[in-house]
Amino acid sequence: MLDMNQKPNMELGCEQHSKTVLIVDDEAIIRDLCAKALKGYRVVEASDGEEALRLFEQGGIDVILTDVMMPRMDGIELLKRLKEIEPTLVVIVMTGFAEKDIILNALKADADDFITKPLNLLQLKTAVDNALDKRALKEELANLKSLDRFKTNFLSLISHKFRTPITTISLFLQNLASGVYDPEDETFRKNLRLIYEEAGYLERLVAELLAFSQVMDTGRGLKLEPCKLDELLVQLLQEARAMFGKEGLETSLALEPLPPVPLDREKITFALRQVIDNACKFSGDKGSVGVSLAREGNACRIVVADGGIGIAREDLPKIFEKFYQVDAGRTGQIKGFGLGLFYAKEFVRLHGGTIAVDSEPGKGTRVTITLPLPAS
């Protein structure tokens, strides 16, 4: 929540044009002058680089306007740190120094524009307007490059994931047609069960592809409608248990009845399904999965905990990356596409929520999702 020294600076009826500008300067009077010049924008202020970085990490910043000479963390170091986190972010550097080294260092750190002090307030407003246009272009270019890489990687992954079960089924059928198997032999029955499992795996892969196709086609916007989270969680846990066919899996629910929450049903169902399915998938036949729902202040808290194989500490920071899959058993044969948690995090974030994972090998995994509740 960006509430530190926040100055809305927007007229009523202009919210649709509102963007957030973070002004970073150790002089309060400079911050105040900049804020007054940026009418129509939402303004957030920080007095040094460290404070600015904390505010930026909370999200929602569109443009950063920063001084160079500041205590604790100066503007150049802040610029470098910001670009490491978000390369498409637009940063405008304010400086009263015309020294070549400062300008060169800022350019090397990928500064997008410069404004010299004393400030020309009309120039400041124009620079911010231009910066937003530049950010939109940078994001569009980055999205196009990312989409191209995604398509290439995804097609390669699909080919790899489908090849193994299809080859297994094909070889079995060839041997069956050649009369290699005796239907009364135990080996035949064992292989038949294997083929049945591989066919089921192919069916789940196709279902996953359709699910990914549907959620990607809906775009990044939200179509909100009232959702009963307790009923949805019951349904998803029942479906997961049936899909994995683990009769000995113990499941438990601790759900606080909450009023309907405005959510994008398709996206939030997808996110919760990924987490619950993973809990069931990575728990043993006699494992346990628990799901809880409770109000926590102005948010609801969903916890999915299992007693399964767990995740190594070094894998935890990577599990929300595209295509990343944890191979706890070091088999090299991980089922699925490695996209479920990536999209789960994206969809939770779109709702203004958070998702966190705590895990220990051999002791299970605990996923916590928070979603904001409407003001009562």
Q: Can you put this structure into words, describing what you see?
A:
- There is one protein chain.
- This protein is α/β, with parallel strands linked by helices and 376 residues long.
- It contains nine helices and twelve strands.
- It has helices at residues 28-37, 49-57, 75-85, 100-108, 121-177, 186-217, 229-244, 265-281, 340-350; strands at 20-24, 42-46, 63-67, 90-95, 113-116, 224-227, 250-255, 261-264, 288-296, 299-306, 354-360, 364-372.
- The strands form three sheets. Strands 2-1-3-4-5 form a five-stranded parallel beta sheet, sandwiched between helices.
- Helix 2 (49-57) runs parallel beside helix 3 (75-85) and helix 7 packs across helix 8.
- The longest helix has 57 residues, at 121-177.
- It is elongated, with a radius of gyration of 26 Å.
- The two termini are 19 Å apart.
How would you summarize the topology of this molecule?
Layout: E1 20-24, H1 28-37, E2 42-46, H2 49-57, E3 63-67, H3 75-85, E4 90-95, H4 100-108, E5 113-116, H5 121-177, H6 186-217, E6 224-227, H7 229-244, E7 250-255, E8 261-264, H8 265-281, E9 288-296, E10 299-306, H9 340-350, E11 354-360, E12 364-372
Parallel strand pairs: 1-2, 1-3, 3-4, 4-5, 7-9
Antiparallel strand pairs: 6-8, 9-10, 10-12, 11-12
Helix pairs in contact: 2-3, 5-6, 7-8, 8-9
List keywords for this structure.
376 residues; 12 strands; alpha/beta; 46% helix
The backbone outline, from C-alpha atoms, is elongated
Percentage beta strand: 15-25%
* Widest β-sheet, arrangement of strands: 2-1-3-4-5
Query: Could you estimate the helical fraction of the residues in percent?
Result: 40-55%
**Major beta-sheet overview:** 5 strands, parallel
Structural class computed from helices and strand pairing: alpha/beta
CA radius of gyration:
26 Å
